[in-house]
Predict the structure.
Amino acid sequence: MQMNREALTRAYRQMKLIREFEERLHEEIQTGEIAGFTHLYCGQEAVAVGVCEHLSERDKIVSTHRGHGHCLAKGCDVTGMMKEIWGSQEGLCNGKGGSMHIADLEKGMLGANGIVGAGSPIGVGAGLALKIDGPDGDGKLGVAITFSGDGACNQGTTFEAMNLAVVTKAPVIFVFENNHYSEHTGNSYAVGTANDIASRAEAFGMKVWRADGTDFFAVHDCMREVLDYVRTPGNGPAAVEFDTERFFGHFEGDPQRYRGPGEIDRLRATRDCISKFRDSVTQAGLLPDADLDAIDTETLDVIETAVKASRAAPRPTAANVLENVYITY
Amino acid sequence: MAKLMYRDAIRNTIFQEMQRDARVCVLGEDVVGGMGTAGGPEAIGGIWSTSTGLYDAFGADRVIDTPISESAIVGAAAGLALAGKRPVAEIMFADFIGVCMDQLWNQIAKFRYMFGGKSICPAVIRMPCGAGYNAAAQHSQVIHQFVTNMPGLKVVMPSTPEDACGLLRQAIRDDDPVIFLEHKFLYGMSGEVSDDPDFCIPFGHARLARAGLDATIVAAGMMVGYAEAAADELAKDGIGCDVIDLRTTSPLDEETILDSVEVTGRLIVVDEAPPRCSLATDIAALVASKAFASLKAPIEMVTAPHTPVPFARELESAYLPSPAKVAAAVRQTLSYR
């Protein structure tokens, strides 16, 4: 289905926002100012945006340790997220969560997660809640989406979650982002079904789709079909495997000695979802270069503002350690 | 008031809360029982009879019979709670905590804190626990000692039908995750239970089950009955004991324990768990650090030994604390000069 100018512009803006957010973090982390572990989403933007552009606030998502892209795509506040990663008291989680635990329940974002595979059953629970709520006036259900990678597809929790979703007919979509690496191990070694994750989901008894995760339009078109299916009461869950690429290491600081010669340059040259989107819309005459350039500039400004605000934001104090628990001893 | 068994107090409370609040839902293995069989739904109604009739009354969307998938059960409870429901999940035996530990420990216990206080997670995880049925090492354990150590979880150990009702209703209405530890050996216990549909027992308030001036016995769950039996026996010899039923091990009612020890000067802690890093050692440390000057004798701890739970009747009886062991410990503290 053809997207209108507004939808195309928005999709590009969202992908670009994730890209620049992550590229900036990659630079900032090297200065030592940001604490902890950070896992960047660069290269996978078309998946988060191609999925989340179809969702409303009623729909829920559950994310992973590589969660910034999902959070931004679901509408989490850019500056609030940046402040959280900086560990500020004004961060989205008051500096208590950090990069791996960003959540915004009001936006339907039920949390990034530091435990690989832990999000899948949580997503099924959210789907069961939406099943209890029942269809809206349009006869369609809200859906819960769990994002997982090729690493999480080997966790028992993912298997349990897929079976539970099938037997309860929960409106859940298991989105598998196959970026070919589980941490520092190739999927040709770690995924026993010959790099094919969707066939596993299919074996659990659900309908599956596959698409090129570096092609925004392939993701977006595929998800329209998947969502139409899962939103229909009685159909139950579905799974989608997106073939995508991770441009940075598993975590920031990863020496990436497992990469082949010139691998990252080749991926950036041939498998960049944002370049591909841009080429496609400009060559088809859908959006002019000038409009996209303007979005690029605006995005850099948004990120610059967020970074400046995070640097200046108030830090938590020792007293804040004891807040947000029901009791301390 | 109505006379009810512990298991029926639990089932009735869940039923009433599901009637009262459409957000309350139930999930677990065989909570309906008989799904996909010739016998059909409700052929079992939960192996502990704590969910009988719920499926017929509330339907499959709210009474979710799950496969044997403990991680998925607790994880789904987490997702239901984050999405605005009030799930009451059952892990058929507390021993199965090992299979779902991540969802309990890294997920539901941490959401509220990790998300900066901007989320609640009103999930109740019911876990039938404890020895007494000769069910051997993997179906007889208590687990309060692990979960009490986890910030973010509330831990409840009802010792009577009345407490099972009032504490479970409080748990379902509570905004924090609650680990609700039902002792399997108490399911058949009868007692008077309030029929007030809003009867709740607030957490962190211990119950004084017996009153006396000579020694303080602290216990929880099934150990409360043992402590009461010991106190009744000792009373015949003119020895008076305070028996403190903790009701919740987190939050812990420190004040009631300390106040009692300040009067009696003698403490006996009874714990069904093995001895190291346990509820017994925790209460002993509390009293030693905050009521040291009141103590007239060394603290006595009556616990299971540091072994797995054995199978044979003679071995399991020897493993468990007993009223006689508790009474002996009280006499031991009283003999100290």
Q: What stands out?
A: Residues 2-193 of chain B form a domain with the Rossmann fold fold (CATH 3.40.50.970).
